[in-house]
Amino acid sequence: MRNLFKLALRGLLRNRRRSLVTLLAIAFGFSAIALFAGYTHNVYDGMARGAVHSEMLGHLTLNKRGMRKEGKLDPERYLLTANEVATITRLLKDEPHVVLVAPRLALSGLVSNGRASTIFIAEGIAPSAMEYLQKDVLTEREKKSGLYDNFKKKLDPAHSEVVALSEGLVEMLHLSGGEQAQVLVNTLTGQANALDVTVGHTFNTGNAGSNDKFAFVSLALAQSLLDAEGRADRLTILLDDMAQTEAMRTRLSEKLHAAGFDVEIMTWQELSDFYNQVHGMFDMIFGFIFSIVLTVVVMSVANSMGMTVVERTREIGTLRAIGLKRSGVVRLFTTESMLLTLIGCTVGLLITLGVRWGINVANISYVPPNSASPVPLLVDMDYGRVLFTFALMGTVGTLAAYLPARRAARQAIIDALGHV
């Protein structure tokens, strides 16, 4: 086996230029796949953390069955009562992995600066729960970039009348921190209810479509506006480990149904349409790029090994004449192809590490589609896809030499020796 690898390596070194060109084709192809996989991995991770912490979906969302459909027409019927909120919260907090249970209440209406009015969509949540939900939204690299400084939402725990408004909404109404505004909503029974509020923290939603209409208010203020004292439309559940999401959904559903609560629990992935759409799009793009690069690698290796076999036909005849079996000839050339592919993938991995380091320290930023602000361009290492690509390219590259090697091995010895 050692002699086989020696002969295969010598065969590659005979025509260094051809081997180098093929090796670089493999290396750059592997690097392109690995870098794109690392970029999408970073995007997926950022969107997952954004959905759980920045959008404040939590890992699980609990509401009465039917709330998402019928509840839009008859919200009062499907709200959780104060007693239900307290009982369910107590049951959930007894479970492992559950670190936060936050009652939520959505509302919408008109907000005015005294001269002009516009619509707003708001989320009612306790200030302490909002702070806890956003605790792990950014990685250390993202904090250092400074691009996410205006994404965090804050409410004043000491003053329930202070609201957090999106930057576009504040700009549209020409408001600034500390100024008064008026909000008008319909209560659960359909009566108009208006209150004065104070503009507090402003934030960027990260989405151009919602940055001019979104707001956060304290849960107490939302309940007062809707005349829904102690009630909530859903409970947001935060876990200590995202990997436990599905298992905890099953466990909590069984426990609550056994306790007589007719509720449904949805995961953050089911609620985040944006995450699912972007994930599906990037997976399709990755598959398209992967198939193109794999085709280029196979054609490059097959072409290189085909030319090598033709040039070494007389050598093959000599080897066959001194007793090397046909299978030995096939093994020799497939081993050459395997070495070429594996060395190319290894060089590609080194290129990937170098380019990745350069991108991550360059502080490059860009504005994604439908986004309201720039985000940093960062590349992770998607070890699963890198290993898969390494193994698949090694296998396919090895098999690419099989047909020309088999054709040469089946040639008559006399004809091979007389080949010119």
From TrEMBL:
Please provide the record's keywords in A-Z order. Answer: Cell membrane, Membrane, Transmembrane, Transmembrane helix
GO cellular component terms, A-Z? plasma membrane protein complex
**Claim: Methyltransferase is one of the keywords in the record:** no
Domain MacB-like periplasmic core per the UniProt entry, residue ranges: 19-253
Q: Where are its TM segments located?
A: 20-39, 281-302, 339-359, 383-403
| Family note | Belongs to the ABC-4 integral membrane protein family. LolC/E subfamily.
The protein's name is: Permease
Organism field: Ferrigenium kumadai
